[in-house]
Amino acid sequence: MRADPPEKSDTTPTSAIDGAQSRIMSTIRSICVYCGSSPGTNPEFAEIARAFGQILAENGITLVYGGGARGLMGALARAVHDNGGSVVGIIPDFLKSRERMFAGAHEIVVTRDMHERKRLMFERADAFVALPGGVGTLEELVEQLTWSQLGRHSKPILIANINGFWDPLLELLDHMKRSGFISSELAIDYKVVDRVQDILPAIEAAAAVAEAAPASAVIERM
Length: 222
Ligand code: AMP
Description:
By secondary structure, the chain is of the alpha/beta class.
């Protein structure tokens, strides 16, 4: 089962800024969110996941995620669903039989393995967001950073640094830059915000910059 994406707005812009905003909004139709399959110890993380789910639903943006019903993943997907939004869960066969899947997804895609799952999550999303999570979240985030660094895509990547959760990773990335392992030619392009309400505006701004780049710089397949 698959939900149709919301219709694009065709309202005539009243100013240059209005025009830019409606164009930017229309470029982001789906966001892949990486986050913990556990809730974490801080209840605020689940609140943030729910708040972001509501924001996605209210903006007509489809959630693409790992398909699980537990932890922050479950809180996020339930919030999208409960607020009338669209959820696409992409889960490998071995996890499907082992884990509780979110029953409210509009579309569940079962993949042969993790590689196919990650490729589909990439292809189905216009941008990537990392909420707090564990090694699975970290791995998925770092993979997108790597693909971006290698010029395989220019989709926005946003780190939601809620309560400074990602500070150790940001410090490590800075350390790598200072140590000459992340060069300016292969700059890793990511955005960082620390409030949930800033996630979408930052993605839209990054998408506008990417859209202005030459089409040849955007390679959307690995
Ligand atoms: P972690 O941060 O280690 O909890 O892993 C979360 C990330 O790994 C999610 O973004 C998922 O894509 C994937 N993942 C881990 N556990 C599950 C699960 N039980 N069901 C679905 N996806 C999972």
